[in-house]
Amino acid sequence: MAKNNILNGGVTGIATILNYLYEIPIGTAIFVMNVPLLIIAFKKLGALFVLRTFWVIGISSVIINMGTVLPVYENDLLISSIFGGVLSGLSLGMIFLRNATTGGVDIIARLIKLRYPHITLGKSIFLLDAIVIIAGGFVYGNAESVLYAAVTIFVSAQVLDFVVFGISRGAMIMIFSEKSDEIRHIIINDLGRGVTVLKGQGGYSGNENNILLCACYDNQIQKIIKKIKSADENAFFIITQAKQIIGEGFMR
Are 87 and 140 found together in one domain? Predict the structure, then answer.
């Protein structure tokens, strides 16, 4: 990425800028800048997390320094940006699933998630990377590099969230029916999914009724609808995407 003049985000981006200005090896700069972040992470995220991350940082720093002597693809910058983002997101996702990081903004993103659990790792990294890339744009004096870098970090963030959360993505279905008891048994016994019964009241009719709430995977939605429609053709559904489902039968 550096040889294509495509900026990187986070600590890698800062290291690339230092390499551009002062010819400091990128891997070495990454390693040195991660030391204070690892000290902070030790207090907040634990010794095992720091040891795993230190191992990843050490290996990646060596590989990055070695990579400067390898052939580089330079034909199409857009292709380089997209595939660079895909490979970055895949590698980060696999590392995060093992409760480690590559250091830098990955550590900061983990600390942010501890304080604000609703903010995904991908979004935090995307924001932090964007700040570094914009700053780097002024150093390079090349707007095109910033734009290609934006493509890379966007793709990387999407792939990262898919790897980390994709398995547990599903849906939340709310079912309104006069045959709620029959449908409840269908969901539990025939479909093998759990269901929660909520008490409700029709705003227009004033009649009390049961609302069924069911969490499922995306590929189960149509099967659930078809099965329920066979019991009550007038059943009313509200279906929303659930980015992450944690608990028995889903992600633990």
Answer: yes
232-248 pLDDT per residue, tens: 999 999 999 887 787 87
Residue finishing a domain among 167, 188, 217: 167
**Which range marks the domain in which residue 226 is found?**
169-242
Q: Roughly how many angstroms between the first and final C-alpha of the chain, as a whole number?
A: 36
Are residue 225 and residue 134 in the same domain, yes or no? no
Same domain, 71 and 188: no
Give the whole-number percent of the chain exceeding pLDDT 90: 21
Residues 183 and 231 in one domain: yes
CA 170/CA 250 separation, integer angstroms: 9
pLDDT digits (tens, 9 = 90+) for 176-217: 998 999 999 999 999 889 999 999 888 888 888 899 999 998
Please indicate, yes or no, whether residues 156 and 185 belong to a single structural domain of this protein.
no
- Asked whether residue 159 falls in the same domain as residue 227, the answer is no
